[in-house]
Amino acid sequence: MLQEIAEGIQKGLVDKRFDGSLKFDCGADGVIVLADNTATTQDRETDCTIRISRDNLGKLLTGKLNPMTGVMMGKLKISGDMGVAMKLGQLLG
Q: Cα-flanking dihedrals φ and ψ of residue 17, to 5°?
């Protein structure tokens, strides 16, 4: 499941540039790492980590979950470089 999401993100990166590194940590379901303009399920250290359930990650990426609302409701937790997290909004938008 996460592999499919990573592949979808990778397709979205084709004409865009993402500087920095970011990890979606879905706990036992695994991780998706955005770094070097690629999306992978290979875990590594990143500038920013977003802890989120796999279900909520799907909602976030499809626009059904607003990032700010998600943080306020505790559906996602951000640690590390907030600037990198803010760049994600431009990438998804």
A: -120, 130
Higher pLDDT, 14 or 84: 84
CA distance 9 to 2: 10
If DSSP codes are grouped into helix, strand and coil, which group holds residue 58?
helix
Indicate the pTM of the whole model.
0.92
68 within 8 A of 77, measured Cβ to Cβ: no
Mention every residue, 6+ apart, whose C-beta is less than 8 A from residue 65.
56, 59, 75
Distances (CA, A) of 60 to 45, 91: 22, 12
Among all chains, which residue has been given the structure tokens 């938008």? 93
